[in-house]
Design brief:
324 residues; D-Maltodextrin-Binding Protein, domain 2; 10-stranded mixed β-sheet; 11 helices; 19% strand; globular
Length: 324
């Protein structure tokens, strides 16, 4: 009995020491998409406030794009489980199992779930030269131009791809999907008039809408947004696509096997970061909502992702859009 208590005390002391010493070198957050995109923007704002809860240690953003985010996620799954390599991923964490026949990791088994960060609404936008000036006119234009419509997205599995997939299913209008290697080149071609429409996150579209460089038609949430640049846009649900509701969430992960004491410290730093007034202000300006509910807790975060996998899998399968 005495030996058991001594062993337990030693374990608790070692755990406490590990937590206090972490992080003892820069922490890298892997973003599985190109620099300059919506997820990258969230990550860079988040890194600035996360470091405050990590002994002001340097937090580095590493962009590892490709294969719809699975390359970056796979890199983190294989990283040393010491808390110094983390993954910031969006809804693609839940849709990749449906999009890819095989993955270099097991979504629910190869990561420690640390908590959700935010939810980002999406907007349906078009090139500035489109003749349609509101959603009703856009639908008429889409119906009149079947077979000629170019719908841009940031690549298989990207938020814009998922939203566009549901949009086509809901409107029952097939469009020519034009995939790009990231949001930035997709937006560039939309601004240049090479493609017609795109459905993308407010973190990437708000500035373009404010400047008048694109036409904005609707938002993808059930409730209208309050952001000044987006408050006058109708919801797709209220515009006739009943039940249309797409928000792109972001969350934080560590490699499986990361010590519980380290996980707890990261989770505490995450929770503190989401209360930072400047971070909240930046997110609100882009139409994003910082998570404040139980999904901040690792167990609830994982439960939510599992539900999202079950939600998106059938929709992706029905569309027949998957990769090898």
């Amino acid at each position: 009995m005495k030996r058991t208590l001594i062993a337990l005390a030693a374990t608790l002391a070692a755990t406490a020491a590990l937590s206090q010493g972490y992080p003892d070198k820069p922490v890298t957050i892997v973003v599985p998409f190109a620099a300059g995109g919506p997820t990258d923007k969230v990550a860079r704002d988040f890194a600035e406030v996360l470091r405050k809860g990590l002994n002001n240690q340097t937090v580095i953003i590493e962009n590892v794009g490709g294969a719809g985010g699975t390359l970056g996620a796979g890199k983190v799954a294989k990283a040393a489980p010491d808390g110094h390599t983390l993954l910031l991923h969006h809804i693609g964490m839940a849709t990749s199992p449906g999009l890819y026949r095989s993955l270099p990791y097991k979504t629910l088994d190869d990561f420690e779930y640390l908590g959700m960060i935010n939810e980002v609404p999406m907007t349906l936008i078009g090139r500035s030269t489109l003749p349609a000036n509101n959603y009703a006119e856009l639908v008429k234009w889409l119906e009149a131009n079947k077979g000629k419509i170019n719908l841009a997205n940031a690549g298989l599995g990207a938020a814009s791809h998922l939203c566009g997939l549901l949009l086509q299913q809901s409107l029952k209008i097939e469009m020519t999907t034009v995939p790009y290697k990231g949001t930035a080149p997709a937006m560039t071609d939309l601004l240049g008039g090479q493609v017609d429409i795109m459905c993308d996150q407010t973190t990437n579209t708000t500035g373009q809408i404010e400047s008048g460089k694109v036409k904005a038609y609707a938002v993808t949430t059930l409730k209208p947004l309050t952001t000044p640049a987006l408050s006058k846009l109708p919801t797709l649900d209220a515009s006739g696509l009943k039940g249309f509701n797409v928000s792109i969430w972001h969350a934080l992960y560590a490699p499986k096997g990361t010590p519980k004491a380290v996980q707890d410290k990261i989770n505490a730093a995450l929770a503190a970061a989401l209360k930072d007034p400047e971070f909240i202000k930046r997110q609100e300006a882009l139409g994003a909502v910082v998570v404040t509910d139980n999904r901040l807790k690792p167990a609830e975060h994982k439960k939510f992702v599992e539900a999202e996998i079950n939600k998106w899998g059938p929709a992706i399968k029905a569309a027949g859009q998957y990769a090898d």
